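Input.
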Amino acid sequence: MNKNLILLVPVLLPVIAGIALAFPKIFPERKTRWWFVCAVCAIELVFVFCAAGGGYELTLARFNDRLAFVLRPDALSLLFGGLCAIMWLSASIFSEKYFSHGKDERMYQCFFLASIGVIVALCISGNLVTMYMFYEMMTLFMLPLVVWERTKEAIHAGYSFFFYSIAGAFLGLFGFFLFYSSKISLEFTPGGHITAGMAGVDRELLLFACFLGIVGFGSKAGMFPLHGWLPVAHPVAPAPASALLSGNVTKMGVLFIIRIIYYIVGADFVRGTWVQNTFLVLTLLTILMGSVIASREQLLKRRLAYSTVSQVSYVLFGVALMNPAAMLGALLHIVFHSVAKNTLFLSAGAFIHQTGFTKASELRGIGKRMPITTWMFTLVSLTLVGIPPTSAFLSKWYLAEGSLTSAIPVFSYLGPAILLISAVFTAAYLLPISVNGFLLGLLEDSDKKIFRREKEPLGMVIPMIILAAAAVGLGIFPNALIRFLNSIITTIL
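Output.
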């Protein structure tokens, strides 16, 4: 038996399990279905690590010597795919109690499972063609999670999510056509394919292709100007779906940009060009814009969505600097932001589940009635602000170091300044929720509206506790993660 077929397990297992749940006679009891979903996610996590760490390669279809569908995981696949599998498992545990309002969530479970299979396939793709195919499938499989409530607002959010994603993907696809017509290999190779003095290369055409890919797939990462779907989709999607959209799906746009710059053309080809400078401008503009708007937004989940717009561009800023320290900061922030933002959205979901309140100003005194959830919210808020010894302090430190040592005119000093300003705004839109939650009394009419249930459900607080502990613990004990990430960086820079 071909051992490379193990790559199909983390792709097909959740997809088949999701399809099976579409039949009403399979697991008719909702609690049993959720146990099944959690079990599939746990098995998925095991197989992602087995598949991504085993040096496997599987060709699904070949059309010619340059065009094929190939699965070929590497260390970068393990970082992104493993992180997604962990967060899907956390969200599945949280969801059993979150969806306990009587509405049948069977179809949600179907697409919830199928989407992780498609995303893992995207992460372990061996070339741009395969990755693009699963990228488009990811959009289609995540769309039902966005519109699951079927309200007018949810349908509108679904349209925004779909059209922004498709518009960005089409820009990226046009870039692929330019790569292909220029005889550049579409296979992922650490360091890229373009070498100094390479004959027959139209430099400006390939730079334009890179730019199309950066802007196009930056849409999924929430980078200006194609960021508009996040603040529309997050408030209406169920909280577990919002957590995954913010903490993981946005990172698929980051992954695509990393693959283009560092695995197709090479950082040396882009460094010092108008593409790098424009990329830096867009990332810093997005960081500042997202932070400022988030500080003015009252709807909690929309505030967190604008926070994601800002925080994911921290990662893109590190990618755009193209030096080892900045790249280490970017890869660290991929992990730390995912852990923190998933916790924030799960906390917001718990607040809404227990109280019905959706605005930050309505959560006065919430810490007295939901202390565990509020403490977890507080810990990961401190993480995103960058307070030591929490984890995001470390990633921001490396980003600032990478910027200061980059010797790029203006940006080497402007970058750390924007990061510092953004950190102040981050504190301004997250920490008052905790301060008001613990130190102020409940709103006068709050007892009439809130606390449908007496206690915080155990199934909801356990994932938050684990993720919040990781957000702090990875900042105190980061060495193993840093060694792993440096092993990736040394192959591409």
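The mean pLDDT is 90.
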